[in-house]
Structures are given as C-alpha cells and as structure tokens.
Amino acid sequence: MQSLLKNILAVIAGAVIGSIVNMALITVSATIIPPPAGAIVTTTEGLQASMHLFEPKHFIFPFLAHALGTLVGAFLAALIAANHKIRFAYGIGCLFLVGGIASAFMLPAPLWFIIVDIGAAYIPMAYIAGKLAIRDRVG
Q: What is the pTM of this model?
C-alpha cells in the first residue's frame, strides 16, 4: 500500500511541478524576448490571430518551457516513485506530450516548431530525467 501511495504522489507531484516550471518560463518569456508588435499573447484567440507575426526567436521559450517542464516533472516523478522509476519518468513525458500535441492543434505554430517540439521536448527529456534520477539514487 505504501508503494502505491508513493507512486500516486510521484505522478501528481511530477505533473504539478512540471506544469509550474512550464508556466513560469512562459510567464517570464515576454520580458526576455518581447512578443512582436501588435501580438496579443494573453489569450489563445490572440495567439491564434497573431502567430504569423512570430519569428523563430519567439519560439525559444515555449520550447524551453515544454522541455524543462517535462524534464523537472519526470525527474521528480522518478525520484519519488517506489519502483519502475523510468516508467514513471516516461509517464510524465507522455502526459506532457499529449499536452504538446493538443497545443499543436490549438495554435497554428510553424511546422518546423511543431516537429522540433514534439520530437525533442517530451520523450527525450523524460528519458534524460529517468536516467538522471536513477543515477542519483545509485551514486
């Protein structure tokens, strides 16, 4: 029973903390790389209407948010999980991947960004997080 509770906590903590990291990076992104003039980035509708104004530099922080949110969430889940640590890291990676795919359908981002984001921000980061968490426990 204790293992089950630890594993449930691992999923919840990984998803919540990973989401917090993601949103924190998205929140600060506009102060570091200002959005294009005339772009409304506070609503989904505004983003949809102004996505054509975005340059490649405007996609750096969304990618970092997706990748680092997944990395932190998957790492935490793997650390907390009672067993099958890699599986929990991949589970968080898959959870965030589903969110990334949904986002790709909601926002008309350039195809190159969708490919890079879906291909590099989720499952590879979950793999790295799982390996780091296991190494941390052993070493």
A: 0.91
The answer to whether 133 touches 78, Cβ cutoff 8 Å, is: yes
DSSP H stretches of helix in 2-138: 2-32, 44-50, 60-80, 85-106, 111-120, 123-138
The per-residue pLDDT for range 67-89, each reduced to its tens digit, is 999 999 999 999 999 999 999 99
Question: What is the crossing angle of helices 60-80 and 85-106, to 10°?
Answer: 150
Query: What's the mean pLDDT when you consider all of the chain?
Result: 93
- Cα–Cα distance for residue pair 36/56, rounded to 1 Å: 11
Closest CA to 120 of 95, 92, 97, 90: 97
Give yes or no for a contact between 133 and 75, defined as CB atoms under 8 angstroms apart.
yes
| CA–CA gap between residue 91 and residue 89 (Å, rounded) | 5
Dist. CA 44–CA 20, nearest whole Å = 19
